[in-house]
Amino acid sequence: MKVVKVNSRNFKDEVLCSELPVLVDFYAGWCPPCFVIANTLRELAREYEGRVKFVKVDIDESRELAEEYEVFSVPTLAFFADGELVDGVVGALPREALQRKLENFLNGGR
Fold first, then answer.
1. What is the b/e burial string over 66-103, where b = at least 16 CB atoms within 10 angstroms of the residue's CB?
2. Domain 4-106 annotated CATH 3.40.30.10
3. pTM to 2 decimal places
4. Contact indicator for 43, 2 with CB cutoff of 8 Å
């Protein structure tokens, strides 16, 4: 599974109406830490295929989403379940920390 790019037009369908839990990567093209975490997210998207949907939102192209979800720094990872924002983290986490966060998210931890 790949990380899907979403924007203001398809965010509702891709994230809020998703049957799977969703990890949203709010990023910017000018952000070096965003590039660092991108490879990890692609790997995890394959590993968690069928259990978690991975999407990314460019904050410069979708400023209204960044404002709505109070994204002040990038990368910001937001975890959505049943159409609701349930958790988030700012910064490029190491793979192991992100994996622990995902497992906690999938097991109902907030």
1. beebebeebbbbbbbbeeebeebeeebbeeeebbebbe
2. yes
3. 0.94
4. no
Which residues participate in catalysis according to the annotation?
31, 34
Q: Are 1 and 55 in contact (CB under 8 A)?
A: no
Question: Is residue 31 over pLDDT 80?
Answer: yes
Q: How far is 99 from 57, CA to CA, in rounded Å? A: 20
Alpha carbon distance 8, 47 (integer Å): 27
**Residues 63-95 pLDDT 10s:** 999 999 999 999 999 999 999 999 999 999 999
Residue 4: Cβ-neighbour burial (10 angstroms; 0-12, 13-18, 19+): middle
In one-letter notation, the amino acid at residue 22 is V
Burial class (CB in 10 A: 0-12, 13-18, 19+), 50: exposed
Q: Which two tokens stand for residue 28?
A: 């910017």
d(CA 16, CA 93) in angstroms, rounded, equals 24
